[in-house]
Each structure stands twice: as C-alpha cells, then as structure tokens.
Amino acid sequence: MISTGTKDRIMHRSLLILSFLAFIIAGTAWAEEEEAGAQGGADWLQQKVETCAACHGEQGVSENPAFPTIAGQHESYLYHVLKAYRDGERENPVMATQVTGLSNAQMRALAKYYAQQESPLYTPILDR
Ligand code: HEC
After folding, report:
1. What pTM was computed for the model?
2. What CATH code is assigned to 40-119?
3. For residues 76 and 112, is the Cβ–Cβ distance under 8 A?
4. Cβ(68) to ligand 1 under 6 A?
C-alpha cells in the first residue's frame, strides 16, 4: 500500500517533469521557427510580402504613384537597396521601418521574390 503522502509526492514530481518537458518542446519549436524566419523561408516570405503589398501592390506592381513598382527589378539592385535602407545609406523613414531587423538572408529572399514577379518594367539584362 502506498501512503497518500507518497502518492502526492509522485504526482507532484510527474507534473514537474511534464511541465519541464512541455517547456523544452515549446522552446525548440519556437527556436526552429525563429531560425526559419531568419533564413527567409517560404512561410516567412509569404507573410512578409503581404506587408509590402499594402504599399507596393500585389506581387510588387504598384497602383499608386507614391510607391515604386518593385516587381521585375534586378535582384541585385533590390537586395542592395533593401540593405541600404536598413543600414541608413539610403534614407527613407518609411522603408527604414519596413526593413529594421531583417537579416541579409531575408532581404535576399525578398529581392529574389520581387525580381521574379511579372512586371510592366523593362529591365534589360546586359551581356558582359
Ligand atoms: C508604408 C508603405 C510601404 C511599405 C509597407 C513598404 N514600402 Fe517599400 N517603399 C515605400 C516608399 C514610399 C518607397 C520610396 C522610398 C524612397 O524614395 O527611397 C519604397 C521603396 C522601396 C524600394 C526601392 C525601389 C526603387 O526603385 O529604388 C524597395 C526595393 C522596396 N521599397 C521594397 C519593399 C519591401 C520588400 C517591402 C516589404 C518588406 C516594402 N518595401 C514595404 C513604401 C513602402
């Protein structure tokens, strides 16, 4: 026969161990999500471009002259200009807020995405 006191202690320990495990699992999932975000993975990108669409239009084709069309511009240009906004080399308070805290990988993912979208812009590819 196990005494009530021992039962209580066993229950208490099991609960402690369970909450500890839950904590570890939740932490790992969160860390993986963070990591995927910092890498500019597909889920992150899909969410992010919805923000950009508010000003730059769906897929980066702007319908408002106040905001440039970013679809179909050169990938390297897009990447460098995003970095320039983040690092303060190109000053624009609106865009600076948009790119604050983005990693280079995330900006690369954004640049690649917009460079690949169909666009009314003509951006010649120069043979070197
Ligand atoms: C609140 C409106 C707004 C949002 C949201 C926004 N932008 Fe912009 N963006 C602007 C404005 C305004 C400019 C022009 C700024 C300037 O003159 O430098 C601009 C400029 C740019 C340029 C430079 C275009 C060029 O031809 O030089 C790029 C690239 C760009 N934005 C990408 C993005 C991306 C990627 C996002 C989403 C992460 C985003 N923007 C979100 C307003 C916005």
Report:
1. 0.80
2. 1.10.760.10
3. no
4. yes
